[in-house]
Design a protein that fits this description.
By secondary structure, the protein is of the alpha/beta class. The protein is built from eleven helices and 16 strands. The chain has helices spanning 37-51, 58-72, 75-85, 105-108, 172-181, 198-210, 251-258, 296-305, 320-335, 340-352, 394-404; strands spanning 5-12, 18-23, 28-32, 94-100, 116-117, 123-124, 131-136, 153-159, 185-192, 221-226, 228-231, 234-240, 246-249, 265-270, 310-314, 366-370. The strands form three sheets. Strands 3-2-1-4-7-16-15-14-10-8-9 form an eleven-stranded mixed sheet, sandwiched between helices. Strand 12 (234-240) and strand 13 (246-249) form a beta hairpin. Helix 1 (37-51) crosses helix 2 (58-72), helix 5 (172-181) runs parallel beside helix 9 and helix 9 (320-335) runs antiparallel to helix 10. The chain is globular, with a radius of gyration of 21 Å.
Length: 420
């Protein structure tokens, strides 16, 4: 297989904001973010529609994606990137790492995962089966490894649905069911509803730590299913109090509660805040969390800054069926020793199989923030004895299919959508 192409795009705080692009092979260039005036207003309007699911048709997503792409990739930066893009074939992978420097949050908050390259061979970057997109706080050379010894992928699940916020999240059963059904995955603990309290999490983590020999982490992944909001300009996640009501904790406090598991990855499945019939203020009116929508990009970046090696956050809530398909595929690939970004791309592929045109907001919903070099969470298992199945991830199966087809990628669910 040809050597993968690794590209880092760094946005720096200046007037106008500077963009630098550099490939591992040494190609580089500089430019600026072109997002001003009417251009910015158009992007922000489309983003609002996206957040309320009013953005529905492929042409609308293409307009947003093209505007975002041309804002970041122009001049030298675009030339370098598209030169590298043209080198892709069935045997090469391109890893695009977006780094947003200090003071660039207003730029980072845009949904860059929806970028659409209008050039021949382009399309939605998140839809290209041989291209991965991640975000980070540092350059690739400053990041540690994620890898640990072989063994099942260990996942700790926290599903918070406080009685004063909502009923059980629609996506909860499908997501948790997908985790329990996948071979190679061990759910080491599950805290749901009234059980998702700080005291119970602490007690269980103490038991898990005692049972883990050497450097083995109690959980490779902490998977949170629940709700976020902004409280007095601070981002917060919901846990449950002993009485079942919400305890809102900031990113630092959340990390303090789960860091005993020593996870390399935190996965945030944020749900639509539909108020519960029990979630009433004293005057009888329901609370509506959408009045203070969370900044999920800020939430993820703060968790990474707080010491999490990697964070995946679902920026826009998914319907139950796509959420379950995404979760199953993502963890299946991680358990098969695929990298986080590769698992993400395969999960997008599986999520969109059978998705109607109106379900395309999922293409850019997952966001990866990396503090570490992208890599697998577990090493590959030793070769199985003859006749014993290893249950590889579907991405591995698709790789084998490509080799049999002479390096050509398999049919994609994005055909007819990613390009015109």
């Amino acid at each position: 297989m040809a050597e993968p192409i690794d590209i880092t795009v760094t946005v720096r705080n200046s007037t106008p904001p500077q963009v630098d692009i550099k490939s591992r092979a040494g190609a580089e260039g500089s430019g600026s973010v072109h997002l001003n005036g009417v251009h910015r207003e158009m992007v922000e309007i489309l983003e609002r529609w996206l957040g309320t699911r009013a953005l529905r048709h492929k042409d609308e997503f293409r307009v947003l994606g093209t505007a975002l792409y041309e804002a970041l990739f122009n001049g030298e930066v675009r030339s370098v990137f598209e030169d590298q893009l043209r080198k892709l074939d069935g045997s090469r992978q391109l890893s695009l790492h977006l780094v947003f420097g200090e003071g660039t949050h207003e730029i980072a908050r845009h949904p860059w995962e929806f970028m659409y390259c209008p050039e021949p061979g382009g399309g939605f970057l998140a839809s290209l089966t041989n291209l991965t997109v991640s975000r980070g706080m540092t350059s690739a050379g400053d990041r540690p490894s994620l890898l640990r010894a072989p063994g099942p992928l260990r996942v700790l699940v926290i599903a918070a649905h406080p009685s004063d916020v909502t009923d059980e999240p629609e996506a909860y059963a499908g997501v948790v069911g997908a985790l329990h059904d996948e071979p190679g995955i061990e759910v080491v603990a599950e805290f749901a509803g009234a059980g998702a309290t700080t005291a119970r999490i602490n007690d269980k983590l103490a038991t898990l730590v005692q049972g883990c020999p050497g450097d083995l982490c109690p959980a490779d992944v902490v998977h949170y299913i629940g709700y976020a909001r902004e409280i007095e300009r601070e981002q917060a996640l919901a846990l449950n109090r002993a009485d079942g009501t919400a305890e809102w904790v900031g990113p630092d406090d959340f990390w303090i509660r789960v860091r005993g598991a020593r996870p390399r990855l935190v996965f945030l499945s944020l749900c639509d805040p539909h108020p519960s019939p029990r979630a009433a203020d004293p005057d009888g009116e329901r609370r509506r969390l959408e009045e203070r929508e969370p900044d999920v990009v800020a939430l993820a970046s703060m968790l990474v800054q707080g010491r999490a090696a990697a964070v995946v956050v679902m920026r826009y809530p998914l319907l139950p069926a796509p959420a379950a398909r995404f979760t199953a595929a993502f963890y299946r690939e991680l358990a098969a020793a695929r990298t986080i970004a590769e698992a993400m791309q395969e999960a997008r592929f599986q999520m969109l199989l059978g998705t109607s045109e109106h379900g395309w907001s999922g293409i850019g919903s997952p966001v990866i923030y990396m503090q570490s070099v992208d890599g697998p969470l577990v090493t590959k298992r030793p070769a199985a004895a003859p006749g014993v199945s290893q249950s590889p991830g579907r991405g591995a199966a698709r790789d084998a299919g490509e080799r049999e087809a002479g390096g050509q990628p398999p049919p994609s669910p994005w055909e007819g959508f990613g390009s015109t």
